[in-house]
């Protein structure tokens, strides 16, 4: 069972991102502040849930949270500042938008660039340990999936509605055979799925 938060003395926001490993589209981050007594059946790391489950949990999180926000850094910014810095920037932008100021931050992962003067802790696999990070992971994932599905309307050849920009075999083949779209990250290498190592 996931814990409600990392500490109980201060107003705590959980932060997570989605899209770091994608070939196309933005990296999206969410910040969520939950009530102290919050509990939601089925809430866990978004990667452990189906698309349907995430979509069902999202409106409940958005309704019950004391504050939540989602922000993105687009593919061009990612190319300029690199994906790690873009992930930090997306989290900072989400935190900027919170209507309730957090006093403590818990970040999914092992690295973070300090936000203002607010203390933080990095939690490896935190989306499977704390409800506020799990909630942030679901919001980041669902909002990003929605964005990529909208882009897919004009770029169906890359199948973003299905792969969301991640480097599936079909997606990599499409980039190699057709070329990149305006939304692909130029600094991300696309290798052929057929490449094998000869001994």
From TrEMBL:
<keyword id="KW-0479">Metal-binding</keyword>
<keyword id="KW-0963">Cytoplasm</keyword>
<feature type="binding site">
    <location>
        <position position="16"/>
    </location>
    <ligand>
        <name>a divalent metal cation</name>
    </ligand>
</feature>
<dbReference type="GO" id="GO:0030145">
    <property type="term" value="F:manganese ion binding"/>
</dbReference>
<dbReference type="InterPro" id="IPR024567">
    <property type="entry name" value="RNase_HII/HIII_dom"/>
</dbReference>
<protein>
    <recommendedName>
        <fullName>Ribonuclease HII</fullName>
        <ecNumber>3.1.26.4</ecNumber>
    </recommendedName>
</protein>
<comment type="similarity">
    <text>Belongs to the RNase HII family.</text>
</comment>
<dbReference type="GO" id="GO:0006298">
    <property type="term" value="P:mismatch repair"/>
</dbReference>
<dbReference type="Pfam" id="PF01351">
    <property type="entry name" value="RNase_HII"/>
</dbReference>
<dbReference type="InterPro" id="IPR022898">
    <property type="entry name" value="RNase_HII"/>
</dbReference>
<dbReference type="GO" id="GO:0004523">
    <property type="term" value="F:RNA-DNA hybrid ribonuclease activity"/>
</dbReference>
<dbReference type="GO" id="GO:0043137">
    <property type="term" value="P:DNA replication, removal of RNA primer"/>
</dbReference>
<dbReference type="GO" id="GO:0032299">
    <property type="term" value="C:ribonuclease H2 complex"/>
</dbReference>
<keyword id="KW-0255">Endonuclease</keyword>
<dbReference type="InterPro" id="IPR012337">
    <property type="entry name" value="RNaseH-like_sf"/>
</dbReference>
<feature type="domain" description="RNase H type-2">
    <location>
        <begin position="10"/>
        <end position="199"/>
    </location>
</feature>
<dbReference type="GO" id="GO:0005737">
    <property type="term" value="C:cytoplasm"/>
</dbReference>
<keyword id="KW-0378">Hydrolase</keyword>
<dbReference type="GO" id="GO:0003723">
    <property type="term" value="F:RNA binding"/>
</dbReference>
<keyword id="KW-0464">Manganese</keyword>
<dbReference type="InterPro" id="IPR036397">
    <property type="entry name" value="RNaseH_sf"/>
</dbReference>
<keyword id="KW-0540">Nuclease</keyword>
<dbReference type="InterPro" id="IPR001352">
    <property type="entry name" value="RNase_HII/HIII"/>
</dbReference>
<feature type="binding site">
    <location>
        <position position="17"/>
    </location>
    <ligand>
        <name>a divalent metal cation</name>
    </ligand>
</feature>
<feature type="binding site">
    <location>
        <position position="108"/>
    </location>
    <ligand>
        <name>a divalent metal cation</name>
    </ligand>
</feature>
<comment type="function">
    <text>Endonuclease that specifically degrades the RNA of RNA-DNA hybrids.</text>
</comment>
């Amino acid at each position: 069972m996931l814990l409600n938060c990392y500490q109980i003395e201060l107003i705590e926001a959980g932060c997570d991102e989605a899209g770091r490993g994608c070939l196309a589209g933005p990296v999206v981050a969410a910040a969520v502040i939950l009530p102290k007594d919050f509990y939601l059946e089925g809430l866990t790391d978004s990667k452990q849930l189906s698309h349907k489950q995430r979509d069902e949990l999202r409106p409940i999180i958005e309704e019950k949270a004391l504050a939540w926000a989602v922000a993105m850094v687009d593919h061009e910014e990612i190319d300029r500042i690199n994906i790690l810095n873009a992930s930090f920037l997306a989290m900072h932008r989400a935190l900027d938008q919170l209507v309730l100021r957090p006093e403590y931050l818990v970040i999914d992962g092992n690295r973070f660039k300090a936000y203002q003067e607010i203390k933080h802790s990095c939690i490896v696999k935190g989306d499977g340990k704390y409800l506020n990070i799990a909630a942030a992971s679901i919001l980041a994932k669902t909002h990003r999936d929605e964005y990529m599905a909208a882009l897919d309307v004009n770029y169906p050849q890359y199948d973003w509605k299905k792969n969301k920009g991640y480097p599936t075999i079909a997606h990599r083949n499409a980039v190699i055979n057709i070329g990149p779209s305006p939304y692909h990250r130029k600094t991300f290498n696309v290798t052929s799925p057929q490449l094998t190592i000869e001994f």
